[in-house]
Amino acid sequence: MKKYYLIALVLGIFFACGGSDKPSSKSSSVSNNSPAKKEVDGKKIWKSLCIACHGLYGDMEVNGAKNLNLSTLALEERIEIITNGKNVMTPFKGTLSEEEIKAVAQYTIDAFKKK
Ligand code: HEC
User: Fold this and answer.
1) 59 with 100, same domain?
2) Which domain holds residue 31?
3) What's the first-to-final CA gap in the chain, in angstroms?
4) Shared domain check, 94 and 61
5) Ligand 1 centroid vs 67 CA: distance in angstroms?
6) Counting CB atoms within 10 angstroms of each CB, which of 7, 36, 60, 99 has the fewest?
7) Are residues 29 and 51 in the same domain?
8) Per-residue confidence at 12, pLDDT binned at 50, 70, 90?
9) 47 in ligand 1 pocket by Cβ < 6 Å?
10) What are the pLDDT digits (tens) for 84-104?
11) Over residues 105-109, mean pLDDT
12) Together in a domain, 29 and 54
């Protein structure tokens, strides 16, 4: 009787392992889907990371943040500031990929009027 118990236990462990394999293969299929969504959404990044200081419309100027509606900086200069930070502005190179930084830099050019 004890032997059957052991076999059942071993089988149980096997099934448990088989079961835990399934979610991991599922998650790999999710990561297989993400390269299809290549488009990085600069607006989404802006809304989640930048509006605390710059505001939704780029003109909030909290903590000395520059009014992005007035900014004349080129894309490369914006990428540089977003990557490495400047004074009060925190660097984002640890948080965002190069691609994401470029997307949000482009967003600050596209979304806010230059006067
Ligand atoms: C902690 C507050 C803070 C956050 C969060 C923040 N910024 Fe800034 N940002 C600043 C400050 C302050 C400056 C002005 C730096 C200086 O020149 O002294 C600035 C300047 C800039 C500039 C340069 C504007 C110019 O004309 O000089 C850009 C572009 C910019 N921020 C984009 C972003 C983007 C994109 C994000 C989100 C990824 C972001 N910032 C998040 C505070 C912030």
Assistant:
1) yes
2) 2-36
3) 86
4) yes
5) 9
6) 36
7) no
8) low
9) no
10) 999 999 999 999 999 999 999
11) 97
12) no
33, pLDDT greater than 80? no
Q: What is the DSSP letter of 41?
A: -
Whether 103 is in the pocket of ligand 1, judged by its Cβ within 6 Å, is: no
Indicate whether 73 and 94 sit together in one domain.
yes
Task: Look at phi and psi of residue 58 and say left if phi exceeds 0, alpha if psi is from -120 to 50, else beta.
Answer: left
CATH assignment at residue 85: 1.10.760.10
For residue 85 the two structure tokens come to: 């930070």
- The answer on 88 and 72 residing in a single domain is yes
Locate 14 and state its tokens. Answer: 């096997």
- CA of 54 from ligand 1 middle (Å) equals 7
Tokens for 55?
A: 């505001």
Backbone phi and psi for residue 56, each to the nearest 5 degrees, phi listed first: -55, -35
Using an 8 Å Cβ cutoff, are 81 and 92 in contact? Answer: no
